[in-house]
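hey so i finally got around to running the thing on that chain from the lab meeting. sorry it took forever, my laptop kept dying and i had to restart like 3 times. anyway pasting the input first so we r on the same page abt which one it is
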Amino acid sequence: MLLQDIDKKEDRKKNKEMEMEITWGIGIKDKAEELMKKKLNEDKKELTPFEKLMQKKREHNRQKKLLKKQKSEDKEQTASDSDDSEVPSDIDMNDPYFAEEFNKPEFKKGKSKKNKIADDEVSNPDDVKGKAELELLLEDEDDGKAHFSLKKIQEAEGTTKKSRRKKKLREKMIEQKQAVPDFEIDTKDERFSALYNSHLYNIDPSDPNFKKTKNMEILIQEKLKRRPADMPVEKQVAPKKSKQETELDLLVKNIKRKTKGVKQK
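ok and heres what got predicted. didnt touch it at all, straight out
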């Protein structure tokens, strides 16, 4: 009995070992790619703009080489598959009958449809999507080479917002000093005489929209010159006297009247 139990246990152990499946390796590639991407992202955080640009160019070149290699391998695989599937192994192409039959358009048309269906079945949607994204990433690489400038990158790194603001302000001040007026107002032009005579065109320097310019000063001075001659003469009205002045005048008049009466007596 003991020996039988031992034999049964060994048989069960062997059966279990035979039924086991090795599943290691599934997802290792994806995990490795994720780790690589994570590592690259961490490195990018510590890189300068120039180093990031150089790393991006290296990555573009590497992806471009991989794309070319993959395309060439796909072409070779397609060519070998088509060569193997075109003619069965038991047919002699040296036979004039078979050579004539295989050169007919009907056979070529059917063969192209068959190859197209096979390519559609074999192609993986994920691979097609990856190729399209890679081509889109690399399509502007040649155009970007002409725009690469080490000097501009170094200037961008060493220039701060404050210095750029000061530089713009300094340039603006220089432009204002060097600016030449486009025209000079002609005060003798009679078409604009209303500017000097009409109250509708009075100038208010306290207005927020007032701009003190060279031509504006000329216009104001011309208005001041013409105003005395053009304005109508107003009657001068005597200023009103205060109460004290009125009382003083009455007192003076009374004294004069009294002194005059005394003299007459």
